[in-house]
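User: I've been trying to design a sequence by hand for this structure and keep getting stuck. Would you show me what you'd pick, starting by listing the structure so we're on the same page?

Assistant: Good idea, let's start from the same input. This is the structure you sent:
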């Protein structure tokens, strides 16, 4: 989406409280086409095959969101769209291991219905390097103060290894945001399904929480063209991103393909 985020991958609308009084600036057709071309180039750089949706595909996606709903109601306890109740979850921390297709696998294991939104926001290389440098300094301080923590030692090794990969050009840093809208015929079914998915992801080391207030804000994060929540922004690499994307196949197929 044109003008959605700054050069560091921070959505403009996530810098303050989102409201109808401060909407995302409308893009001209030329700006939208250039943004689409840039997105496809970025996807290719991450070795992701991406094609623009046809008009019917866009309409189908919009019909599942608050932007395309005929009737909608929101409250601190959840939302209601066209006869189905919605509970919104967002990831606030990634797990220690990144398995291919892990997001869709968790959705299937939890037996939930809904919409999964994964925002990908390119970030300047110097911002990624600066973040990793601060993290390495903090971990070294923790170990130097005599707190012999195995997790801190492993984290320091991983951070230094990632710095080497970025310097060698073998990895690229970016921001992502994962938001899931779980639907159900009743409020209790929607909440129960969201609870199952949350438990599965937390068992894998993820930080996941239900989003309640402001009531309408979570629904925009799972709407095509909508901005993610600020709490959802996570700095990671293109390797992790590729493993988060859908991976479906037979029991004998390789999800990396």
């Amino acid at each position: 989406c044109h003008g959605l985020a700054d050069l560091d991958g921070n959505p403009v609308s996530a810098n303050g409280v989102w409201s109808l009084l401060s909407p995302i600036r409308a893009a001209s057709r030329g700006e939208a086409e250039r943004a689409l071309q840039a997105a496809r180039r970025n996807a290719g750089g991450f070795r992701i095959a991406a094609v623009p949706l046809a008009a019917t595909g866009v309409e189908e996606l919009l019909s599942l969101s608050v932007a395309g709903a005929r009737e909608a109601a929101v409250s601190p306890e959840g939302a209601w769209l066209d006869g189905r109740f919605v509970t919104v979850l967002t990831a606030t921390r990634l797990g220690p291991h990144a398995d291919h297709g892990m997001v869709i696998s968790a959705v299937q294991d939890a037996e939930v219905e809904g919409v999964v939104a994964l925002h990908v926001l390119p970030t300047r290389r110097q911002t990624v390097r600066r973040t990793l440098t601060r993290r390495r300094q903090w971990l070294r301080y923790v170990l130097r103060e005599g707190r012999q923590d195995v997790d801190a030692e492993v984290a320091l090794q991983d951070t230094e290894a990632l710095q080497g990969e970025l310097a060698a050009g073998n990895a690229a840093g970016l921001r992502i945001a994962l938001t899931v809208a779980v639907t159900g015929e009743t409020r209790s079914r929607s909440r129960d399904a969201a609870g199952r998915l949350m438990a599965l992801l937390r068992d894998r080391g993820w930080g996941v929480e239900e989003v309640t207030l402001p009531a309408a804000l979570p629904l925009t994060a799972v709407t095509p063209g909508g901005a993610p929540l600020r709490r959802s922004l996570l700095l990671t690499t293109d390797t992790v991103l590729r493993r988060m994307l859908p991976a479906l196949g037979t029991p004998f197929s390789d999800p990396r393909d």
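That's my pick for every position. To get oriented when you compare it with your attempt: The chain has a mean pLDDT of 79. DSSP finds eight helices and seven strands in the chain.
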